[in-house]
Amino acid sequence: MTPSLMNFFYSLLAGLLIVVVPATVGLIFISQKDKVERS
């Protein structure tokens, strides 16, 4: 595997950590904080 391909995979992983993880944590936090009352 070439170094540039490895850097590409590392950048994908970094983007995943920067975008997906905070979005998931935020959605979980909001969904727990703002519960819908169902009767």
Automatic annotation (TrEMBL):
Residue stretches in coiled coil: none
Subcellular location: Cellular thylakoid membrane
Main location: membrane
InterPro entries: PSII_PsbX (IPR009518), PSII_PsbX_type_1_subfam (IPR023431)
Topology of the protein relative to the lipid bilayer: Single-pass membrane protein
Signal peptide segment: none
GO biological process: photosynthesis
Pfam family, one: PsbX
Function per UniProt: Involved in the binding and/or turnover of quinones at the Q(B) site of photosystem II (PSII). PSII is a light-driven water plastoquinone oxidoreductase, using light energy to abstract electrons from H(2)O, generating a proton gradient subsequently used for ATP formation.
Complex and partners: PSII is composed of 1 copy each of membrane proteins PsbA, PsbB, PsbC, PsbD, PsbE, PsbF, PsbH, PsbI, PsbJ, PsbK, PsbL, PsbM, PsbT, PsbX, PsbY, PsbZ, Psb30/Ycf12, peripheral proteins PsbO, CyanoQ (PsbQ), PsbU, PsbV and a large number of cofactors. It forms dimeric complexes.
Protein name: Photosystem II reaction center protein X
Gene label: psbX
